[in-house]
Amino acid sequence: MTSVPTRARRWLVVAATAITLVTGAGVTPAAAAANPYERGPAPTLAALQASRGPYAVSTTSVSRLAAVGFGGGEIYYPTTTSDGTFGAIAISPGFTAYWSSIDWLGPRLASHGFVVIGIETLTTADQPGSRGDQLLAALDYLTQRSSVRTRIDATRLAVAGHSMGGGGSLEAASDRPSLQAAVPLAPWNTDKSWTELRVPTLIVGGESDSIAPVSSHSIPFYNTIPASAEKAYLELNNASHFFPQSVNTPTAVQAVSWLKRFVDNDTRYDQFICPGPGGLAISDYRSSCPLS
Fold first, then answer.
1. Fewer CB near the last or first residue (10 Å), C or N of the chain?
2. Domains contained in the chain, CATH given
3. Which of 260, 266, 258 is CA-nearest to residue 285?
4. Catalytic residue among 209, 217, 264, 288, which?
5. Backbone angles phi, psi at 161, to 5 degrees
6. Which residue in 112, 162, 217, 241 is the catalytic one?
7. pLDDT digits over 94-147, tens only?
8. Phi and psi (nearest 5°) for 160?
């Protein structure tokens, strides 16, 4: 056997130690370089179905007086400072509603490695166009003026919302194509055509929604979004318009998977998007598979 000189052995030990310190335990240099936005452990369905993800979460409030272009709200963010920056999501409630109606989404999404702002709207009667503008204003506040701005990667942003807030998330994605994802929940909008959309969009509808029936809202919205944008449609079996107002595991599983895939560019979540979920809770699922 050929021996390695002492000086060479020392160099190898130093190099190996340096690689370990830079990349972290269990992460190869190639994996770290392939996706610098990957956050958290490898996903499992059980982990996605749990009430919280792997990150501990803190909250901070935004007063109406401090907000510019929206009505204030609540920010949820991972407490760790060792994983670098995170993508961010702004979420709007629906017509006549307050953030408290869907506030379970804040800690649920943040615990999977996102900074989330759940907004209050300027008035509870604001229409989708206004709600879209407010979502974008909230993202600008998050990345430019908020107390957590240093925790955010301003190039990786997304929007979501319920009802008119969901319609607003479509408006925001149309107005700002640099967004990485949109997740409209039971979306309502008088505009039925979204051929201009370029943002990866997951629409979640309720089969028994009588306020924004999927036949005249969610499905036409989905059908008109170009497949090149990446899109998916999840329909919940026998769900009403108000399904986002209670903790809903199928919605959370798909929303987290969609956001991790397109905000974090994490292909480990492809398995939950294509071919997609099934079971008694799902009445329909469509997607622009295969993912690129």
1. N
2. 46-287 (3.40.50.1820)
3. 258
4. 209
5. 175, 165
6. 241
7. 999 999 999 999 999 999 999 999 999 999 999 999 999 999 999 999 999 999
8. -155, 170
- Distance, in Å, from the CA atom of 240 to the CA atom of 244, rounded to the nearest integer, reads 9
The three-state DSSP-derived secondary structure of the chain is CCCCCHHHHHHHHHHHHHHHHHHCCCCCHHHHHHCCCCCCCCCCHHHHHCCCCCCCEEEEEECCCCCCCCCCEEEEEECCCCCCCEEEEEEECCCCCCHHHHCCHHHHHHCCCEEEEEECCCCCCCCHHHHHHHHHHHHHHHHHCCCCHHHEEEEEEEEEEECHHHHHHHHHHHHCCCCCEEEEECCCCCCCCCCCCCCCEEEEEECCCCCCCCCCCHHHHHHHCCHHHCEEEEEECCCCCCHHHCCCHHHHHHHHHHHHHHCCCCHHHHHHHCCCCCCCCEEEEEECCCCC
Is 241 a catalytic site residue? Answer: yes
Question: Which whole-number Å values give the CA distances from 147 to 8, 66, 76, 169, in the listed order?
Answer: 48, 11, 11, 24
Catalytic residue among 101, 163, 174, 218: 163
- Look up 209 and say whether it is catalytic: yes
Phi, psi angles (nearest 5°) of residue 243: -60, -30
Q: Has 270 been annotated as catalytic?
A: no
Short-list 153, 169, 182, CA closest to 261: 182
| pTM as predicted | 0.88
Looking up tokens 């979920």, which residue turns up?
277
| Residue 285: both structure tokens together | 């699922």
